[in-house]
Every structure is written in structure tokens, then in C-alpha cells.
Amino acid sequence: SSGSGHFTEADYAEILRHAAARHVEVIPEIEMPGHARAAVQAMNARARRLSAAGLPGARDFLLADPADRSRYSSAQRYEDHLMDPGLPSTYRFIEHVVAAITAMHRRAGVPLKQLHVGADELPNGAWAGSPASLAMIEREKLAGLPGLWNRFYDRVGEILRRHGLAAGGWEELGSRRDKLEGVDKGFGSGPLVPNEHFLGRGHTLYVWNNLDEADDLGYRLANAGYRVVLAPATKLYFDMAANTNPGEAGVNWAAMIELRDVFEHRPLDALRSPSGVALTPAGRARVAGVEGTLFAEIMPTRERLEHLMLPRLFALAERAWAAEPTGPRGDDAAWSRFAHQVGRQLLPALQRDLPDVAFRIPPPGLRRVGDAAEVNTAWPGLVVRFTTDGSEPTAQSPAVAGSRIETRALIRAAAFDPQGRRSLVFDLDLR
Questions:
Q1: Cα dist. 417→21, 125, 303, 409 in Å?
Q2: Which of 49, 125, 367, 379 could be a cystine partner for 343, CB 3.0 to 4.6 Å?
Q3: pLDDT tens digits for 22-52?
Q4: pLDDT by residue (tens digit) across 171-182?
Q5: Are 364 and 403 contacting, i.e. CB atoms less than 8 angstroms apart?
Q6: Sign (positive or negative) of CA dihedral 120, 124, 129, 131
Q7: Which positions ≥6 away from 25 have C-beta within 8 Å?
Q8: Strand partners, 230
């Protein structure tokens, strides 16, 4: 209740072995240089503690330049969360962490192959006021802050190679702004474009950003020569709410994502930007796969996680391994087949084998037609029950006969599965 806790090494080894037995590869992500506040503040505290005790090595793993006067704010409004690439101690810390993680994998009997090194959401203003970083730019004759970024990941790549690891990261690992600028103006402006500096190094880019002018960024990175995993936020981020109903779980900064939105997504032929960029044959061959993403920071319970993940995970499997739907809104016949599989086969089988799984049941659709309400459900196998006295429907409430409710009252309706589990309640006032 007071925090996210931690895994012991024994816990982590158990996860690795459990996954490996099911042909699942666990790829740990160590965020750098941004999203690193826990590490930055922990190493600050370590330095203060050792210094106060008069012990050696206080600055050995320091991640922030004490003289840094940079002004920035992260996407989460932090102003003190960045590793400083100008400090030798930053690379000493990264080396230590990488060595520790690879050793844990080795002791678990599941050798590590790839490490995800973050790289996302570096805020404007980063390092511009750090004497250590500015001195490194001058000393190594780097092309301003963009050159410092390249040098940072050059060093990180060297550390990974020493441990036999490939590098993975969010798309910023292989991207830059199309107009590069100097130290006084930050990291450039304009849309993201492929960064040629890291081509040919075997990096895998996990491309979440398909917003606005970045809607074809994954394709452009693959065409340029990068191995990519497509994880578009507006289609495959499962921590997004399904719709605008205030009772729905999830967030909405990228999109609202219903089950059909996931099913009808076309990873290799998504809606293109005005530039019309599409995958070339070579680029298509570099698409390693698709990723459904779910960040557990908004998951207070296991039930909430399962509610957001299922049954959207089934639609992700279709998009990963089945032929893509055809037609302007996808193949209606394919959707109908899938919806029947979900309602008649997949969820009943899931309930039989894992009765405690808390998958989402979509609320019914209701609309006024004259003095009646038309009713439908997202997939077969659900029963719509309703009340007209203002109370919430239960498994004992009357079921809708056919597809209409004839009444002049406030209808409160919900969908129920065969086990009696209920969706959110939908209200329609026909008074």
C-alpha cells in the first residue's frame, strides 16, 4: 500500500524460469538517461551518506552534476530525473547495473540477450546548464547536445557489447529532430527523423509514437535500416480506456481503444501520414513484430490489469499472426467471426481454466428509437438485464427479450456473462 515494492533475486529468477519454460523471453528495461529519478536520487543519497561518514567512493556512482543549473520538466513534471552523460560516474553506474543484471540471468540459467535501455522523452533543456556535459562537448568536439546524445549511447553500446548484449530502446534511440541545433537551442526542432548515427549496430527500436506527424515514424525507421517493433499508442496501448464512459478504467492521452480498434489495426499497412510513407520490401523485413503495451503504474490491483488486458490480448494475437483484415473498415466478416470466437469460445474457455481472471465485459449499446430503446452487445454470449425503477441491474433483473425495450422510463442496463459477472451500467432516459 505504500509503494511498488521490489523483486528479490529469487523472485526474478522464478519469473525468468517460468517465462523460459513457456518460450517467453524477458527483456528488462533500464531507463536512461531520462525517467531515471529513482536511480538519480538514490545515488545522490548514497553520496551524501558516504561523504558525511567520511568514507571513500562517495561520488563513484553519482548520476547528476551537483553544479547543473539546467531548467527542464519531464512529461511527468520532474525536474531532477536525468543521468548526466558528462560524468564518468554515470557510465560506472551503468556498467555496474548491466553486469549485475546479466549475472542474475546467468545464475537463473536464462542468459540475457538484449537489454532495453529506454531513451524516451528526454525533455527540452536537458544538460544545457551542466558544466560536466558542456565540458564533454568542448573536450570531444561534439556537435552540441545532439552530439552529446550520440556519444552517450555510443558509450552505453560499448558497455552492452562487453557483456554480449544487443541494445533495444524506444524510437528516440534511433531518431533525431530534422533540424539540429546547438547547445543554446537544445536538441532541435521539427518532426522526428531517422538518426543515421546508430544504423548498422543491431539496435531494436520499440516504436510507440504514432501521434500527429509521427504516424508513419515506425515505417520510416524500418525503411532507413532499423529493426523495429511496432507498438502504436493509439492502437496497442492497453492502459488506454475503451471509451469515454467515466466509469471505464484506463487513461486517454493517446486514444480510446475498443476491442474492435485493436482487431482492425493493420500493423504493416496502417493509415499513412500526408507524406504517404509506406514500408518498402526491405523495411517490411525489418519489422520484428508488434507489441501490446500496458504500464502497471495505474494498476492498483491484479483485477484492474486483467480488465484492461483481456480480451484485447486476443485481438493482438490475431494482428500478430493472422492475415490483416481488408476493406476500408476492416473485413466485417472477419470481425463477426472473431466476435463470435470471443463470446462463444475464448472467454468461456478462459473462465473454465482460470475462473478468477477479471476480463472486461463491455456494456450494452442502447439508443432511443421512437418510444423504445434498441439494445445490442459487443459479442454473443452476453445477456442484457435492465431496471426501470432507478436501481442498478443485477443477475436477477429481467433480461431484454429480443433487441428492444418498450418503456417510458429511465432504463438502467448492463451486460452479464453466463457466470453472472456484470459490465458497467448504461443509462438511457425515455421518460
A1: 33, 52, 17, 25
A2: 379
A3: 999 999 999 999 999 999 999 999 999 999 9
A4: 999 999 877 765
A5: no
A6: positive
A7: 19, 113, 114
A8: 207, 290
